[in-house]
Every structure is written in C-alpha cells, then in structure tokens.
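In the design runs reported in the main text, the only information available to the sequence generator was the tokenized backbone. The following block is the verbatim input for one such run; it is reproduced so that readers can re-run the procedure and compare outputs position by position.
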C-alpha cells in the first residue's frame, strides 16, 4: 500500500470555503485503477493557519504514479493553484509513504 498526502496551511476564516472546495469537487478517483480511499483531514489551529491534509490510499506506489500521469489527474487538478491560492499560505506540501505495517 502507498499513502499520498498533501498538507495545506489554510488562512483563518477560510476553512469553510476550503472544505467546500474539496467536498464539492469531482475527484475522478473512483475510476482510477489502484485507488483505495480518500480522506480530507482537518488538523490543529495555529495563529496564522489551520492545518489540513488530503490523504489518499493506493494499492501500491505504481498505481499512484500511474494516476499522476493520467488524464484523470489532469482533470482533477486543472484549476489547482489559481483562484484558490488565497485560501492557504504557500504551496501544498506533498508527502508519500510506503506502508510497512497495518494493524486491523
């Protein structure tokens, strides 16, 4: 399994707009081979931002890599970074993880 995460520092007062942007968008993920599940996470509030993370689980790194090169990826990210940039500080920070252990 592979977990892909992007961290966003959302400006205070923009939380509802940021959450609406994510929860109302067409993700194109359900049709992608190797996709397992997606989570949008709200984290701690700091003085200058609220931390959010998009968290996607994939069958393996190869499935994630194939998605990043797909038309579905381009469609899902076609407006990323445009007018929505005012909702958060800086650029999203990507982190990718190979799963070593799972306990159920």
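Verbatim output:
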């Amino acid at each position: 399994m592979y977990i892909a995460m992007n961290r966003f520092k959302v400006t205070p007062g923009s939380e509802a707009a940021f959450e609406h942007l994510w929860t109302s968008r067409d993700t194109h993920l359900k049709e992608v081979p190797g996709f397992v599940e997606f989570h949008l996470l709200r984290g701690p509030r700091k003085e200058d931002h609220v931390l959010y993370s998009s968290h996607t689980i994939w069958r393996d790194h190869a499935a994630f890599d194939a998605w990043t090169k797909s038309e579905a990826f381009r469609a899902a990210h076609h407006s990323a970074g445009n007018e929505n940039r005012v909702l958060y500080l800086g650029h999203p920070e990507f982190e990718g993880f190979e799963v070593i252990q799972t306990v159920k």
